[in-house]
Amino acid sequence: MAGFFKTVTFMVLVFAAVVSAEDYEVGDDAKWARPSDLEFYNTWASKKTFLVGDVLDFEFDAERHDVAIVTADEYENCEKETPLSLIKTSPAKIMLNDTGPIYFICTSADHCRFGQKLTVNVVDDASGAGGHSGAGTTAPTGSGETAAPLPAESTASSLGGASFMVALVSAAVALF
C-alpha cells in the first residue's frame, strides 16, 4: 500500500510541475504596440488569470517601443522618467515573481497616454488546481521583486522543463 501512495504522490507532483507556468504573448496578435482602444491591454489582461511563475512575452518593434515596469502612480500618470525596469530589446520576456498588481508602460513619445499600458494582477495558486482559466483577480502586493526580465533566449517551455525536472528529482529523493 505504501508503494501505491508514493506512486500517486509522485504523479501529482509531476502533474503540478507541468501545469504550473504559462507563457502569455501580450496583446496576442496585436503584440505590444500603440493600440486604437485606450483599454485594449487591460481588457486583454482581464480575460486571463496570471499566476506566480507565469511569463509575459512582449513582442514589439524595438525602434518604436519598449517595456517599462513602473509604480502605480507612474502608471496612472504615464510618468516614464524613472521606471523600476526598462527593456528596449524585443522580445521582452518577464517572469511574474510575486503576487499583486504589476504595471507596464511604453515610454516612447505619448504611447502610454494613447493606451500602450498594462496592469496585470498576479495571484498565488494556493488551490493547487493550476488555474489559468477565467478572469484575473486582485491580490495584495507581496514584499519581494514582482517581475524580472528573462534572458532573450529564454522561453516558457524551458522554464516548464526546468520546473518539471526540479519537481521530478525532488519527488524521487523524498519518496525513494
Low-confidence stretches: 10-15, 134-144, 152-169
- What order do the SSEs take from the amino end to the carboxyl end, as H and E? HEHEEEHEEEEEH
Distance between the termini: 14 Å
The proportion of residues in beta strands is 15-25%
Describe the protein.
Residues 129-152 are annotated as: Disordered. Residues 135-148 have a biased composition (Low complexity). Residues 22-124 form the Phytocyanin domain. The protein has helices at residues 2-18, 40-46, 72-77, 156-175, and strands at residues 23-25, 50-51, 55-58, 67-70, 85-87, 92-96, 100-105, 117-123, 147-149. By secondary structure, the protein is an alpha+beta fold. It has a single domain, classed as Cupredoxins -  blue copper proteins (Immunoglobulin-like). The strands form two sheets. The protein has a five-stranded mixed β-sheet with strand order 2-8-7-4-5. The protein has a four-stranded mixed β-sheet with strand order 1-3-6-9, with no helix packed on it. The longest helix has 20 residues, at 156-175. It is elongated. Residues 10-15, 134-144 and 152-169 have low confidence and may be disordered.
